[in-house]
Amino acid sequence: MPTAQVTNRHWASKTSLLRTLAEVATSGWCTRSLYLRPESVTDPEKPHEPSVAALLSQVGGSETGFALFLGDEHTVAVRPPFPISRNVDADGPDVAPLGELLNARLIIGVVLLRLGRYAVGVLEGDRLVATKTGSRHVKSRHRAGGSSQRRFERSRERLIRELFDKACEVTQGVFARHLSDIDYVLLGGERLTLGGFVKRCRLMQELERLTLSRRLSVDRPGQAALDGIAREVWKSEVVTLGPDAGG
Question: Residue 215's Cα: distance from chain center in Å?
């Protein structure tokens, strides 16, 4: 098999990916379907056959696993929004496992946070079932020097801690009724701010095993951001690979 190279890489909404799966199922080019759980992507105890290993080296790692649809001329690799639960190796186009994942009514906790604003929600599938938003003033950075700057920085750090504590309290309240049912948690906002929040909030530490590392894109946490967050939550990365002309 010629060496594969990435010819296209993009993020697809749930609706767009379901259309892609319908095309894979009916077009006739797919000769094999391979689903890999996250643990199976990099498990050194179960080395992949050379052709599959070459494909994985091109598309990169994945905390949610991969669905691979292989053909003679090209391959489509899908990094799904949530982990694949079982390994599958099937002849021809088997899109059912990925379709089932995309249509699952997972309970997903969402926390969107930037300095000054937060928004917390719970999704059941695509539907928001709980939300709360708020804001808390955080001073911009101070450029002066000396003792004035040190006082300003101490004040700013206190305001950030208060924001984190309030966001944590709100998250606890919004998640409370769904806490035993939450399948996954996703965070959105600036990575450094989110890291400080997680370190400050005990609940987020308790939910660490359910929290995916993917960060949701959000410019301004608020109700408007939550109203459209399902689209971001359910996005998948789709990578198309074809033969390398120089391989």
Answer: 6
Q: Write down the residue that tokens 């769904």 correspond to.
A: 178
Q: Where in the chain is the domain with CATH 3.30.420.60?
A: 107-233
Q: Are 96 and 104 in contact, with CB atoms under 8 Å apart?
A: no
**3-state DSSP assignment of residue 69:** strand
pTM for this predicted structure? 0.88
Q: What is residue 29's three-state secondary structure? A: coil
Residue corresponding to tokens 């091109």: 58
Quote the DSSP letter at residue 233: H
Is 201:164 a contact under the CB 8 Å cutoff?
A: yes
pLDDT digits (tens, 9 = 90+) for 66-104: 999 999 999 999 999 999 999 999 999 999 999 999 999
User: In CATH, what number does 107-233 get?
Assistant: 3.30.420.60
CA distance 133 to 226: 9
At 106-130, the pLDDT tens digits run 999 999 999 989 999 999 999 999 9
> Are the CB atoms for 114 and 190 separated by under 8 Å?
yes
- CATH topology classification for 4-104: 3.30.960
What's the pLDDT tens digit per position in 178-205? Answer: 999 999 999 999 999 999 999 999 999 9
Q: Is the dihedral of CA 208, 214, 220, 221 positive or negative?
A: negative
